């Protein structure tokens, strides 16, 4: 009888040990999912840092003055990386051509943003901005809302935009 009880207890111990190992592995798998690595909602300090930094980048590279387009281009060269460089060059090709002739001034101001994903040195944000452009040739201003989704990476201690997804916003004119 004692031998049978020892055998049963040994079998139960092996089963519980196996269950413990399996449970530990499953818990590790759950912690390793992308959703749990995303600290956008749990690390307020980092989320605030990336949000403020990327908002400043958007305000800087999407604003320009016809008298010094080079300033904006230098900022873009410093604050954009990867795919965003080509995307920006495409978006601003017309600006480079028409801004001096029309004496354009564009001011972009981020009005709201949200960090959708923050994992290590990578982030994805949704940006809402107001844009005001003024033509010096006739003094007319126009206003537009802009909505962007941007990917950002932290390089050399600074957040830089690595991808830009644009959405169409409405435009109204003010005579």
CATH class descriptor name of the largest domain: Alpha Beta
Helix count, DSSP H or I runs of 4 or more residues: 6
CATH topology of the largest domain: Nuclear Transport Factor 2, Chain: A
Strand element count: 6
**Which CATH architecture of the largest domain?**
Roll
Question: Could you report the average pLDDT, rounded to the nearest whole number?
Answer: 85
Write down the overall geometry: rod-shaped
- Helix/strand/pairing category: alpha+beta
Which parts are unreliable, with pLDDT below 50 for 5 consecutive residues or more? 169-175
Number of domains: 2
Strand portion: 25-35%
Q: Outline the biggest β-sheet.
A: 6 strands, antiparallel
**Percentage of residues in helical conformation:** 40-55%
Computed Rg: 26 Å
Distance between the termini: 100 Å
The run of helices and strands is HHHEHHHEEEEE
Structure, explained:
With 175 residues, this protein is of the alpha+beta class. The protein has two domains: 1-32; 42-174, Nuclear Transport Factor 2, Chain: A. The protein contains six helices and six strands, in the order H-H-H-E-H-H-H-E-E-E-E-E. It has helices spanning 2-31, 34-37, 44-61, 69-79, 83-91, 93-102; strands at residues 64-65, 104-119, 122-135, 141-155, 158-167, 171-174. Strands 1, 2, 3, 4, 5 and 6 form a six-stranded antiparallel β-sheet that branches. The longest helix is centred in the N-terminal third of the chain and has 30 residues, at 2-31. The N and C termini lie far apart (100 Å).
